[in-house]
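Field: sequence (string)
Field: structure_tokens (string)

Example rows 1 and 2, in order.
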Amino acid sequence: EDYAMWDDVSWGELITGLDEPGGLALDGEGNLYVADFSTGVIHAYNLDGEELQSLDTEAGEGAIYGIEIGPDGALWVANNGEPAVFRLNTTG
């Protein structure tokens, strides 16, 4: 029962409407990527919560286990349904 206390923290919803958000990654340009565990769709948002685009990985329910931005700027996706790891180029 050890709790850390943070002072002057604001808490609020940024994004709503996802079924089961299951992974988050933030790139250096302020784009937030959210994987929906129940659909296999990866959504990209700006930090105001506006959806920029989405990608249906077609992996299906329960397959996308995690996402991460790599040092190369690409989005790396762990797909337990294959099983495989995919690299997605998120720029140009």
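Row 2 begins here:
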Amino acid sequence: CMTWFPQRHARIFCAAVNYAAHRDEMGRGESGPNPMIFLRTPQSLVRAGEPIVKPVNTESLDWEGELALVIGKPARHVSRENALSHVASWTAFMDGSVRDWQRHTAQFTGGKNFDASGSIGPELVPAEAFGDYKAHSLTTRVNGEVVQHTSIDLMLHDVEALIAYISAFTELQTGDIIATGTCGGVGEKRVPPKFLMPGDVVEVRTP
């Protein structure tokens, strides 16, 4: 393993509503045949262990723990069968989401790209050491409390599908990142809703 942070030119592709439990809690209805993809900027992330920043113009900064992968070699029009050969390594991802801004329009780019609102890392686990990604689990804790937990094999669109789909419209480059989506248990859907506040600690583990 090694510590790492994406280069400023890296593209960060994120899969939305990619677990049934999260789809259902968000009231998204049935999933379509293709994954829903949005982009985050490197500027929206900090290194794991560094503080994320609660925006001054919202009270609805939410957590989303995810498994992410880093592309190791260019991929264009990749088949499912060859998709995993383009994965260099795996890491943890915290897709911090500003819920009110996310719903300003049908496109939720703003709510996903506040500066320093998410986190990645701190370690990259080489693909050969990580093994079968579907055999792993994903756990998110806030202040030590487990708030999200899932088996990664419950993805609606698996990693092979994500790589094949994205590489069909753009060439994935070495260093690009794909965050594979969060499971159920986000703060907004708790009763009452719970959002991140200064001093809170979020941990994402795989496993």
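free_text_note (row 2): Residues 56 and 114 are 11 Å apart (CA to CA).
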